[in-house]
Amino acid sequence: MPGTWTRSRRENVSIHTFAAPEEGWAVNSHLLEFTTEIFVIDAQYTVPFAEEVAQFAETLGKPLTRLYVTHYHPDHLMGASAFRAPLFALSSVAEKIAAVGDRVAREEHEKMGEKIPEKARQVERFVEEGEETVDGVRIALRQLRGAETQDALVISFPDAGAIIVQDLIYNRVHPFLGERNFENWKADLREYRQLPYDLILPGHGASGGVELYDQMLSYLEVAEAAYQTSSDATEFRRLLVESFPDHGGLKVLDHQMRFLFPKKRQSGA
Fold first, then answer.
1. Which end of the chain has the smaller Cβ count within 10 Å, N or C?
2. Three-state SS across 177-238?
3. What pLDDT is recorded for position 65?
4. What residues contact 156, with CB distance under 8 A and at least 6 apart?
5. The pTM is what?
6. Are 18 and 202 in contact (CB under 8 A)?
7. pLDDT at residue 266 above 70?
């Protein structure tokens, strides 16, 4: 099944969002089309889905000059070889990819075969928090600490009211909870909810407004309670599926069980 595309237009930048199907962990890549160049935010889980993003970028007739990877998780990194642009990331993210990226690639390659490379592409350009202007569009980079993962990049457009928060938010998709940062994650959601952006682009699921922060907070409240009361992975999985029957991302839900219940790799682990 192919992925799907949606488009948001804001202040001299078009944001084309590619959403992978369940096989690709329902992850989003955001293609930023400026007047003279293109950036891609996150590289997909599998190379075939990444190639869909790269091929679409070619149809726009502008050079693809940057590929950003917001964090080291495999669904945002493993497809990076499909892109010819240099790979940008926070230095802390680059260090994590250097330390564990190849091991993660081997593990995912064993499961998915040639759809996943045996080695992770390494970061070539480091970025820091701050602002720059591209084709007259102001871009702000922020480092998110301690939410879904310890370090992640957030990209926003202060004059256009749009923010790419990636895995700070999963919209009607089961999130990865394996790092168990429940309290910090909820605090970050409350902080970001106060920022002056009305278009929120998540790492999984459809874009929306500020209501996405409250929806994510509600999910984390339920998930934290379920984790505290569940005796094993089977019970935890059942509670979340029953609580959120309309959510996708079951592959992510299953993937995280070995981190949440390392001594009890039962069904779904």
1. N
2. CCCCCHHHHHHHHHHHHCCCCCEEEEEECCCECCHHHHHHHHHHHHHHHHHHHCCCHHHHHH
3. 98
4. 139, 140, 142, 162, 163, 164, 195, 197
5. 0.95
6. no
7. no
